[in-house]
Here is the input.
Amino acid sequence: MAQLGNSDRHRSWAEPYKIKMVELVHMTTRAEREAAIRKAGFNTFLLKSKDVYIDLLTDSGTSAMSDRQWAGMMMGDEAYAGSENFYHLEKAVRKYYGYKYVIPTHQGRGAENILSKILIKPGDFIPGNMYFTTTRLHQELAGGTFADIVIDEAHDAENEHPFKGNVDLSKLEALISKVGAKRIPYVCIATAVNMAGGQPISMANMKALRAFTQKHGIPIIHDMTRVAENAYFIQQREKGYRSKSVAEIIKEICSLTDGATMSAKKDALVNIGGILAINNKKLYEKASNLVVVYEGLHTYGGLAGRDMEAMAIGITESVQDDHIRARVGQVEYLGNKMLEAGIPIVKPIGGHGVFLDAKRFLPHLQQSVFPAQTLAAEVYLDSGVRSMERGIVSAGRQKDTGKDNKPELELVRLTIPRRVYTQAHMDVVFESVASVYEDRKKVRGLKMTYEPKYLRFFQARFARI
Ligand code: F0G
Here is the structure.
């Protein structure tokens, strides 16, 4: 049974914790913000955190840890090899996710690097339910090519499909007939698809995909960075799951896959860390050997013992129904305010943030003048709220032609850190976006003045046109 403690499904999602320590934030004037965003080349990644009031850049590594996690940090066993904390982490992964072997990594992309290197050969194709920036880059660096097999609805901000993270099996089938199953080392399935707006994949779709890939002998690797949020949506939206706990649903999702990469900086409630988890012993041996080259010994993978302890406890806290209900409840609170005001956002409201649809927000701007990049800068200028571009800048260039990828989705992500901000902060964020929306006709676009080679959105610079 889903445990709801003292709460009732029809009552508020109020946080199942109280505040014990606070961190003061900085308020700035418009003139200070104007100077800061210019200095940052109109890229919110290049702002100093001290110049930010409410930081919705990302939900990655920005969670508030619990008193238990902090207590766990004091129990760090900082041995080079075989730290107690590693075994706690291994136990938590086995218990809640069900994967057999686990290797810690410094963060998600560390796991993606190792996985891509052991599984991908040059010329391979890696189908996935929409790309993620670092995941696709590691696939490409290993000589592979990403193939998008998410359903079409995922590319349409206004479509209200309840499971926009679903795979379109006919797209996968077409890829197999074109290149052959032998050139597909695995299918990469993300739960709560980030680039689609935090949209879940359904259990029914996972099962159908599993049956289909087994027929072709293709394994499934799970990007489980936001698996708890996905499980919550399954509980709320999918027939037959209402009375199952989020923990049970997570375990079932994982059981339909052969291994996973995870950035523990999101759902797992830590500020740093990741894991590579795998069921096959031979692959595990390869991975645990390679991790020594890039991350550290296979019982610490670039982390301190204390980090692994915080992660083990964070995993346990992250799968509790009360926690995840409040987490998604807060995101929905902000999203619903936007919808009521007629502000265009991605629907349905996702698990980790509210995504502004910059194409409809600033319809007078062509994609070539970076509407989402522009909008993120404008929201910052208005209030000091920091968000992030998820559009043409994030999509980067095509591997073979070097041309810009032109994604359908041109979004600004207001990402909500876990257990950090209050409902009043959400009100301030809404008021700021609403005020930019009122003045939207005055907004001009940007031009790119510096473009780095890899993952350009992190470090590119822009100027006003
Ligand atoms: N996979 C997904 C779905 C992610 O969202 C991220 C990170 C990663 C992998 C890589 O993990 O950052 O620990 O190396 N997403 C962050 C974000 C950066 O802001 O969405 P990492």
